């Protein structure tokens, strides 16, 4: 891993024909560059909560990278509203009911990440994956996708892509 300024990242991984893939993933860009946060409007949907007394601002993360970047199959413990700003993303979704069919890692650190690769599944090692029901969508600029807590999702950028995610409890 190498520390780069945003300008260096764009020059090296977006604008050049460099073969190295860089992905700004789950990055708190808006905390680092507060001026950019002025361009972000928190959707009202993120303010819905079972208990108004425990409401807090959602976590806002940036996802920026070239075509072909991947977020492996995993789930998050919070509500997630994924907003597509630039480019398209292919998203595969699986219900929490399919967790055993997705073969989560045994370790505490990766318990929310699947061992199976949905784009190239090894059915010999992961035979139950055939039983998992997959929902697919393509997210276009200006669209948002709500991902409920503990729903498994795999994301692949189809183009140079910039997304913003809002996570809340």
UniProtKB/TrEMBL annotation:
Keywords associated with the record: Iron, Metal-binding, Nucleus, Oxidoreductase
Single GO cellular component annotation? nucleus
Q: Which Pfam families match?
A: Cupin_8
Q: Where does it localize?
A: Nucleus
Q: Which cofactor(s) are needed, names only?
A: Fe(2+)
Gene Ontology molecular function terms on file: histone H3K36 demethylase activity; metal ion binding
Ranges where the JmjC domain occurs:
22-169
SUPFAM superfamilies assigned? Clavaminate synthase-like
* Alphabetical list of PANTHER family matching this protein: BIFUNCTIONAL PEPTIDASE AND ARGINYL-HYDROXYLASE JMJD5, HYPOXIA-INDUCIBLE FACTOR 1 ALPHA INHIBITOR-RELATED
- Name-wise, this protein is JmjC domain-containing protein
Organism source for this protein?
Rhynocoris fuscipes
């Amino acid at each position: 891993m190498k520390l780069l300024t945003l300008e260096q990242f764009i020059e090296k991984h977006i604008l050049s024909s460099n073969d190295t893939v860089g992905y700004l993933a789950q990055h708190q860009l808006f905390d680092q560059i507060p001026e950019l946060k002025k361009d972000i409007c928190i959707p009202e949907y993120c303010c819905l909560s079972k208990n108004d007394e425990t409401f807090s601002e959602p976590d806002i993360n940036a996802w920026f990278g070239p075509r072909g970047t991947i977020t492996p199959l995993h789930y998050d413990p919070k509500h997630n509203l994924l907003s597509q700003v630039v480019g398209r993303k292919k998203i595969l979704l699986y219900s929490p009911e399919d967790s055993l069919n997705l073969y989560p890692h045994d370790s505490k650190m990766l318990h929310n990440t699947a061992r199976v690769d949905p784009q190239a599944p090894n059915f010999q090692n992961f035979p139950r994956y055939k039983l998992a029901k997959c929902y697919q969508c393509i997210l276009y600029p200006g669209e948002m996708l709500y991902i409920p807590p503990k729903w498994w999702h795999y994301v692949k950028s189809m183009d140079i892509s910039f997304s913003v995610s809002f996570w809340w409890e």
